[in-house]
Amino acid sequence: MPAFQYSARDSRGKVVSGIIEAAAQGEVVRQLREQGLMPTAIQEGPATAARARRRQKGKTGRVRLEDLVVFSRQFATMIRAGLPLIEVLSILAEQSEKVAMKNVLRQVEKDVEAGASLTEALMKHPQAFNTFFVSMVKAGEAAGMLAAILDQVAVYLEKTASLQRKVKSAVVYPSTVATVATLITIFLLTQVVPVFVDIFESIEGKLPIPTQIVMGISNVLTEHWLKVLLVVGALVVIVWQWKKTDQGRHFIDRTKLKIPIFGPLFLKVSISKFSRTLSTLIKSGVNILSALDIVAATAGNIIIEDAIMETRVSIQSGESIAHPLTESGIFPPMVTRMIDVGERVGSLENMLAKIADFYEDQVDATVAGLTSLIEPLLIVFLGLVVGFIVIAMFLPLFDMIKYLS
Fold it and tell me: Are 291 and 300 in contact (CB under 8 A)?
């Protein structure tokens, strides 16, 4: 669709300009008059349209968690104000900066206008609205409490986004430092060590073992770098494909929960997410079995997912939630006992919310501790690696000095 650059005057006589995409110039005139503007100049501008598309390019992307938070808040506010559903969807689509979100909302608006329920319209876009979001909207529509449910969704998504940011802050920093350390090591082995090789070739006798090790690694990286890349690439592809298998997923996710330092953090995040999601769903009136299905699908760890599905089967057999969670051996005793108490006193959702709050605080403390612990460990590791290379290169030089003296 062509883009037209226009100039027009508003009701106060002020000149305004902009770009409108339309099928023809007459359509531009009609749109401007509907906005209360009097067009003074209209010109088709392909170059201008191209610039506009380039500006929009960075705003396409996928629908992120933060976008859903804003969408839920605004949706709830407009519904509570009494605006019709179709008008709300139209407003939200119009003001959305993300092209992906705008397109999804336009399609949802069309489906609702055609007679579909909001839940049915959202279900057609799983890339934007996951099972949890759709289930909450379904519960809100059924209970006539859509605004209140959307507020709960926004709170849940805000806490989930906050939790994700904390985990990223704990993982990104050591990953960045480790990457820099690896690049420095590769630079030393490929650019600095070969300079010493010519010197050491003139030395008679056997080189020290550390020097032989460093020179061997340097030779592999400089002479056979293509083979090294192919081997590393093949290993990455094999692991990536194996990760998609049931056995690979179980092994990797089980390892995540057991690795030193980060394992306890991942477990706390999983427990917090499980508790917060289940609490929100139960509070919104979602059936416990359906809620467990949703929680399992959004767990993010196959080991946690299996434990939740076993709990679902046990509930169908008439057992409590706490018993199968205890038998799984994954959830700490404090969690299972609080869930058991919540079941017995009839306030399971409140107890789960307290568990989620507690573990979110634990994640905060763990991230702060990891940051202060990992930094000196990485510095020591980098110092040892670089120090080993430097010492290995200077050991033969010390022997030469002794020989000369």
Answer: no
